[in-house]
Write a structure and sequence with these properties.
This protein has helices at about 5-10, 15-25, 30-35, 45-50, 70-80, 100-105, 125-135, 155-165, 170-175, 190-210, 215-220, 225-240, 250-260, 265-270, 275-290, 305-310, 315-330, 355, 360-375, 380-390, 405-415; strands at about 30, 60, 65, 95, 100, 110-120, 140, 150, 175-185. It is α+β, with helices and mostly antiparallel strands and about 425 residues long. It has five domains: about 5-95, Winged helix-like DNA-binding domain superfamily/Winged helix DNA-binding domain (Arc Repressor Mutant, subunit A); about 110-185, Alpha-Beta Plaits; about 190-270, no CATH class; about 275-330; about 355-415, no CATH class. A four-stranded antiparallel β-sheet has the order 7-8-6-9. It has a three-stranded antiparallel β-sheet with strand order 1-3-2. A two-stranded antiparallel sheet has the order 4-5. A hairpin with a 4-residue loop joins strand 2 (about 60) and strand 3 (about 65). Helix 15 crosses helix 17 and helix 16 crosses helix 17. The protein is globular, with a radius of gyration of 26 Å. The relative contact order is 0.08.
Length: about 425
């Protein structure tokens, strides 16, 4: 059915049917949004329906409404509509799983209170000391800016452990920053089968449609299609971890909102804040210089002129510009084709805990490899098995035996290149 036909059919229905069609997708709706999507003209029409149907409605503290799984099934059967049929323009059919709505899934997996500290470990031996000190207390991961972040129950407790376990010089070198409270859920808290289905829907269908206008920006920093797909999956997973189950808004609405902003973090993540800022400021300086000189080419502008417009020293300009030129060269370089190379890398599977504990960066690379392999083989069950074990820092020595052969082949090739 075309969008035009769907819209025409929906508009031809009476207001009460439209009201019921909207609320029976299982998501939260406040009065204003519900009225707008149902295309109801008078407030009284909707308020009267709400008053007459209190017995089937779930109301939040913020005055949003939804219905439960059984009511959704009852209404669709009453209307003779297939549960996966799209009936409301711009809305998805109900997302149901094992007798629950998507809203129920998130409510049953609430975010946990987490304390975090971030630190800089310039020496490998200091990093290993930190990991050993915090083992069993916090999960340590590497950030995109090169610093490390530890997640635990108490930031103060983690800081105290490090101060006692390290020498004074080692502790001071960490440049610790603390954040007392952070709320997030872990993947392991979400039902495994539901997560596989949801990742497929949100990463392969929903997110790409939202990110269409951002693809020019994304493609600058992620040239490979698989890298883009992997980044989208990471964004969806991050949103699932951060989504406030008590916000009385649909997860799709929250994901829509953050996906319109997160692509603009890519310059800082891939270049670092200094180089990203330099590129932005340099472009502004060149635009100003062009206006002042009737559209001259940027090649005609001197270092003195551009550094002055950017309010930095010539020495700093030259250093950052060299980094900029290096990045441009790498960005435009031809990709290697490993099949044609005598130095082809071979993949290796994870088998022991030590292979992960030795370097937190390996955890990130393995997670990315698992996501890429899932996208390639559509075997989300194997990917989830690996990611969930990394998430809890509890790697099963017999993991290989639980993965499909197709997934292992794909996963090995990605791990070998990471």
């Amino acid at each position: 059915m075309t969008k035009k036909t769907l819209r025409k059919r929906f508009n031809e229905k009476d207001p009460l049917w439209r009201i019921e069609a909207v609320i029976h997708d299982g998501n939260w709706y406040d009065f204003k949004k519900w009225k707008k999507i149902a295309k109801v003209k008078e407030d009284k029409t909707l308020s009267d329906w709400i008053e007459n149907n209190k017995d089937i409605l779930i109301k939040s503290e913020s005055n949003s409404y939804r219905v439960n799984y059984n009511e959704i099934i009852r209404w669709y059967e009453q209307e003779g509509i297939e549960i996966d049929e799209k009936i409301v323009p711009s809305n998805f059919p109900p997302k149901l799983w094992d007798g629950k709505t998507e809203t129920d899934i998130f409510l049953e997996a609430p975010r946990r209170r987490v304390g975090t500290i971030s630190f800089e470990a310039k020496k490998e031996e200091v990093l290993k000391k930190c990991q050993n000190i915090l083992k069993g207390t916090a999960k340590v991961i590497q950030e995109n800016d090169g610093r490390y972040k530890a997640y635990g129950l108490s930031a103060t407790h983690m800081r105290n452990l490090l101060s006692k376990g390290l020498s004074e010089d080692e502790f001071n070198s960490l440049e610790i920053k603390t954040r007392a409270i952070l709320l997030q859920r872990e993947l392991i808290d979400l039902p495994r089968e539901w997560l596989e289905t949801s990742l497929d829907f949100y990463a392969n269908k929903f997110a790409p449609s939202i990110l269409k206008t951002s693809m020019p920006t994304i493609s600058i920093y992620l040239k490979d299609k698989n890298d883009i797909k992997s980044q989208i999956v990471i964004w969806v997973i991050t949103a699932m971890k951060k989504f406030d189950e008590n916000a009385s808004v649909p997860f799709s609405g929250y994901l829509n909102s953050v996906l319109r902003h997160w692509p603009y973090d890519l310059p800082n993540e891939h270049l670092g804040k200094d180089l990203a800022k330099f590129q932005r400021d340099r472009k502004k300086a060149i635009d100003i210089a062009r206006e002042e000189n009737d559209g001259d080419s940027e090649k005609l502008f001197s270092i003195e002129k551009l550094s002055e417009l950017m309010n930095i020293s010539e020495k700093e300009y030259i250093t950052l510009n060299d980094e900029h030129e290096t990045w441009l060269a790498e960005k435009n370089a031809t990709a290697l084709i490993w099949e044609d190379s005598a130095n082809e890398k071979s993949g290796s599977m994870i088998g022991k805990k030590e292979s992960l504990d030795s370097n937190t960066k390996d955890m990130f690379n393995i997670s990315i490899s698992a996501i890429k392999s899932a996208l390639e083989t559509e075997d989300w069950e194997s990917a989830y098995l690996i990611i969930s074990q990394i998430d809890t820092n509890d790697i099963d020595d017999k993991t290989n035996e639980k993965l499909s052969l197709e997934f292992i082949k794909s996963f090995s090739s990605y791990v070998g290149k990471s």
